[in-house]
Design a protein that fits this description.
Layout (H helix, E strand, L loop, with lengths): L6 E5 L6 E5 L17 E5 L4 H6 L5 E6 L4 H16 L5 E6 L4 H6 L7 E6 L2 E7 L4 H13 L11
Parallel strand pairs: 3-5, 4-5
Antiparallel strand pairs: 1-2, 4-6, 6-7
Amino acid sequence: MATTTSTRTVKCLHCGRLNRVPTAAHGKPRCGHCEALLPWIADATDDDFAEIAEQATIPVLVDFWAAWCGPCRMVSPALEQLANEKAGQLKLVKVDIERAPKLAQRFTVQAVPTLIVLHRGEVIARQPGAAPVDALRRWVDGAIARIPSDSRSGGN
């Protein structure tokens, strides 16, 4: 298993401080200053997907995308908005199918964007294509609602 030590700098939506959030960790990221939950957004490849997405302790929204895909670029801000809104409840993992062909094959990605909600490595929901943020929110909320509440907390 690859050890992922990369981080992403995230601005706390509560106090405005910058925080380094690891791409893979247990629990939920919190602001080092005010302890507010932080949005968790990470990129994954064939080599680190298991650690970043499948071992996450909270539900994961996986975005299979490609740089040449117009709808992928259009839906990306909506997905980041959801990651911000659902800080502590959801992790957004972005997978570039050009850099992760094994994952695209494994999850039978035939069109991009393809969105998948995972919980403890299991596919809970799947949606091909882009959609407006309100439709995506309803879809994600419905997927998360199917997970028993005692198993979606993720600690922290």
